[in-house]
Specification:
Number of helices: 11
CATH class of the largest domain: Alpha Beta
Number of domains: 2
Largest sheet: 8 strands, parallel, barrel
Order of helices and strands: HHEEEHEHEHEHEHHEHEHEH
Helix content: 40-55%
Radius of gyration: 25 Å
Oligomer: single chain
Distance between the termini: 84 Å
Strand order of the largest sheet: 3-4-5-6-7-8-9-10
CATH superfamily of the largest domain: Glycosidases
Low-confidence stretches: 1-41
Shape: globular
Number of strands: 10
CATH architecture of the largest domain: Alpha-Beta Barrel
CATH topology of the largest domain: TIM Barrel
Structural class: alpha/beta
Amino acid sequence: MNIDYSMNIFKIVFFSLLISVTVVFCKKSDIATTVTPITPVKPVVPAPEKDMINSTAVDYYGQLKVSGNRITGKGDSAIQLRGMSFYWSQWMGKYYNASVVKWLKDDWYCNVIRAAMAVDNGGYLTNPLVEKQKVFDLVDAAIANGIYVIIDWHDSHATDHLQDAKNFFGEMAKKYAGNPNIIYEPFNEPLQVPWSAIIKPYHQAIIDTIRHYDSNNLIVCGTPTWSQDVDVAANDTLVGSNIAYTLHFYSGTHKQALRDKAKIALDKGIALFVTEYGTTDATGDWVVNQDETNLWYNFLDTNKISSCNWSIADKAESSAALFSGSSPMGNWMSNQLTISGTFVRQEIRNKNLRFK
């Protein structure tokens, strides 16, 4: 082999490799500009299996009552429930079934769930029988499993739908009066509208409707500004017994300032129930903020405030507990739980008792 020929071969190979390396680096650069940021997450220590208490949660805690600024159970002892909220019923109805409820009780140790019955956007106002049946399915399953269940009128314009809400809650109260599992939530998240002039009269009308049939079960009432202005509601409280007030937070958005408002409300003597919270920002998406959520957990624990996490859904957003395609019948494996789902499940399992 002569030297000139060898040098030509060497040049061809060298320049081919150079072009290949350049292409590879260009491709990596292109990829780097389109990669979605990964949500930072801290490792979650698995909760050990707990000994089972030979009782259901409802038998153990009993009828819920409001005593001062606390929700209490048997013996007037303050209790704290932890569980999950289902997603808008018209969009994620596949999870509204008894198998999922049983799985949440058995595997997550949930002692409360929330049936977020959609009102508008194709919900109850459009398909009342279909959406109402989803609520029946969850409520009946909760009663069968001995856990508490929130019947949520999931609406931000409930004052525009007063008669529909009265009809709905009248039917629910008539059907389920006498079951201590039931918690009523007449108005999910009022907008930035006056409490005393608009929201309070609505609640009072629904309370009167419920109490016509059900004199005992807890009613949790939404507050202004997406259920954040609990301090405003504390200045002009509702008339009746066993009434608590709704506080919602998304930990990436709502931080110490909202905890301060909640503390003001508690100091004024009203009881709070976090019927919905998220581990992300208020859009329900982006980063799972574990540090801020843990600050909220500490606040809830200190003040014995019950809570439900948003949400049992496989929607492609960070606050959803499940990855897309997760079974609509429960029995989820660990790799089917999102970062938020894993984090919240361990919080519930670590702190709730395990009931039969």
